[in-house]
Automatic annotation (TrEMBL):
Top-rank taxon: Eukaryota
EC code(s) of this entry: 2.1.1.320
Key words, A-Z: Methyltransferase, Mitochondrion, Transferase, Transit peptide
Principal EC category: transferase
Protein name: Protein arginine methyltransferase NDUFAF7
Catalytic reaction(s) noted: L-arginyl-[protein] + 2 S-adenosyl-L-methionine = N(omega),N(omega)'-dimethyl-L-arginyl-[protein] + 2 S-adenosyl-L-homocysteine + 2 H(+)
Its biological purpose: Arginine methyltransferase involved in the assembly or stability of mitochondrial NADH:ubiquinone oxidoreductase complex (complex I). Acts by mediating symmetric dimethylation of 'Arg-118' of NDUFS2 after it assembles into the complex I, stabilizing the early intermediate complex.
GO terms under cellular component: mitochondrion
Organism: Eleutherodactylus coqui
Main location: mitochondrion
GO molecular function: protein-arginine omega-N symmetric methyltransferase activity
Species classification: Eukaryota, Metazoa, Chordata, Craniata, Vertebrata
One BP term from GO: methylation
Cited InterPro entries: NDUFAF7, NDUFAF7_sf, SAM-dependent_MTases_sf
Length: 326
């Protein structure tokens, strides 16, 4: 175990090791989605969710001036169900989109999930290739005829007028847990219990954390969860939208800066102790939307957060469901 070699890990280091280690990482080898996985996401339950996001994309494209090109980027596409539903809507509105050069770009670190996505969206198996002329590791054509590419990092996606979709993506990014003490903010670490060698435990760092600079001056909580990774990504999205135009839609379990300890694990659709059997369960933490908004400042206009229920009602889910019931 890495802790034996290097000492206590931050929660962020622990999450990265447990989820994305090339050999034993949870995301690298597990089929975590669906009935037989560890959790189910909205697109796996109903196609309506993705269809309404497709309608949102077209509405934003039209209100934004009908750009001649559009990059549709999804971060963490799961099994590809959401993008499949979005593209079905795009096909139905082809008469509106004929003048737009559309391409699809997926950011995915899991080899297993990228294979599932490729099969679902293109109808074929796409070989993984690494080319000096491209940062994409897979390239193909969707069933509706649009070029599609896969990347390991959002920083690798070509720039341009873009719609970013991130559904249950930010909640899987590594977090740091900070605890307020009489001496300042200390970071929570994960270490081996000296009394029980095979058991992990949380311990408090011995010195103040530099990450405290990311905490708002008026913070009232005594325990916060911060994700520098999320800050980098949201700033990238905001900067690109500010420069080239576009929009981003982020849907996730989250809060507006009023929750404290949300770090938890899921295995077989049940809560699982994050320190037990690492690599066998998904690890997640609620997204602090107030933190994300503070990281982009006034770079772009940001709306929300609102509940997913309100968003779907605003997009006409009640009318869409009536169609299924008729």
């Amino acid at each position: 175990m890495k802790i034996k070699a290097t000492g206590p890990l931050t929660v962020a280091e622990y999450m990265k090791e447990v989820l994305t280690n090339p050999i034993k990482g949870y995301y690298m080898h597990h089929d975590m989605l669906g009935e037989h996985g560890d959790f189910i996401t909205s697109p796996e339950i109903s196609q309506v969710f993705g269809e309404l996001i497709g309608v949102w994309c077209i509405s934003e494209w039209m209100s934004g001036g009908k750009s001649k090109s559009l990059k549709l980027v999804e971060l963490g596409p799961g099994k590809g169900s959401l993008m499949d539903d979005i593209l079905r809507v795009f096909s139905q509105f082809q008469h509106l989109l004929n003048s737009c050069d559309i391409s699809v770009h997926l950011v995915e670190v899991s080899p297993k999930l990228s294979e599932i996505q490729a099969t679902k969206l293109t109808g074929s198996i796409i070989e993984t290739k690494y080319d000096d002329d491209s940062s994409a590791y897979k390239n193909g054509v969707t069933k509706c005829g649009l070029p599609i590419s896969w990347y390991h990092d959002v920083q690798d996606v070509p720039e341009g007028y873009t719609f970013f979709i991130a559904h249950e993506f930010f909640d899987a990014l590594p977090i740091h847990k900070l605890q307020k003490t009489s001496d300042g903010w200390r970071e929570m670490l994960i270490d081996i219990d000296p009394e029980i060698p095979h058991k992990l435990r949380f311990v408090l760092g011995s010195s103040n954390s530099i990450l405290a600079t990311l905490i708002q001056a008026d913070e009232q909580r005594d325990h916060v969860e911060l994700s520098p990774n999320a800050a980098v990504i949201i700033q990238k999205l905001a900067s690109q939208i500010n420069t080239f135009g576009g929009a981003a839609l982020i849907a996730d379990y989250g809060h507006s800066g009023d929750k404290t300890d949300t770090f938890r694990g899921f295995r077989a659709h049940r809560l699982h102790n994050v320190l037990v059997d690492p690599g066998t369960a998904d690890l997640t933490a609620d997204v602090d939307f107030s933190f994300l908004k503070s990281m982009i400042g006034n770079t772009v206009a940001s709306l929300g957060p609102i509940t997913q229920q309100d968003f779907l009602k605003n997009m006409g889910i009640d009318l869409r469901m009536k169609v299924f019931l008729i």
